Amino acid sequence: MTTVRTLIYVAVVRHWPLYQMDVKNAFLNGHLTEEAAVTKLGFHPSAFDSALFLRHTLTGFVALLLYVDDMITTGFDSSAISEVKQHLFHTFKIKDVGLLWYFLSIEVVFSPKGFLSQAKYANEVIHCAGLADIKVSNALIKLNVKLNSTDGIPLDDPTFYCELVGCLVYLTVTCPNLAYAVHVVSKFISTHRSIHWAALVCILRYLRGTIFLGLLLSSTFSLDLVAYVDSDWAGDVNDRKSTSSFYMFLGDSLIS
């Protein structure tokens, strides 16, 4: 989902319109006919993300992001974007949603800056866990706690733990501050015990108190890519491996 964040950020900085289209599932005939359709228009797949297609024209540039049956298109050649949309309308059964506002459970708000949120999705996860009325927490994970695979008792329903961890992984798209805590609980999806469930609940309690926070995309014109990296030293109590961390900024906006 880094590509989604990056594409939206570049569009915000360059003041490009972002359009969304919903492709009906009927066009999926066991092979990627949608890829063939866009390559006929002169698009070529990105080397960094197979879901991203790029097209350079004489007067501009068009990008098309395709996830199964959801599309985003943007660029600074309005006539080429219109041509792409008309071609797709004649090839597949497509609904033109208009300007981008909700994509793969990600809410997009445009102002002088861009804002990405997953409040609706987060609320659904919290209700699914049965924690809608639980007290909120101001900490994601207890300080200096080292979880291992032997403490606590095995869970009665390990599948539910795995499902919730998967949901939390997806929430890091707009809540990157969850990343480390989610990384910790995800290490125990095959050996989950009561102590790991308690750590998972702590994350959900924190999420409930910060549900309307999201990711702000700055409108500054810088496209400099800057990364910050750190790691502990043999901090994992189970295998003594180190844990590394990184933040990557495009301009002033966090993209990964």
Describe this structure in words.
- This protein is of the alpha+beta class.
- It has 2 domains: 2-116, Double Stranded RNA Binding Domain (2-Layer Sandwich); 119-213, no CATH class.
- 32% of the residues lie in helices and 24% in strands.
- It is built from 7 helices and 13 strands.
- The chain has helices at 2-14, 33-40, 78-91, 119-128, 158-171, 179-186, 194-209, and strands at 18-23, 44-45, 52-56, 61-67, 70-75, 94-99, 102-103, 106-110, 114-117, 215-217, 225-231, 244-250, 253-254.
- The strands form 3 sheets. A 6-stranded antiparallel beta sheet has the order 2-3-4-5-1-6, sandwiched between helices. A 4-stranded antiparallel beta sheet has the order 7-8-9-10. Strands 11-12-13 form a 3-stranded antiparallel beta sheet, with no helix packed on it.
- A hairpin with a 2-residue loop joins β12 (244-250) and β13.
- α5 (158-171) runs antiparallel to α6.
- The longest helix is centred in the last third of the chain and has 16 residues, at 194-209.
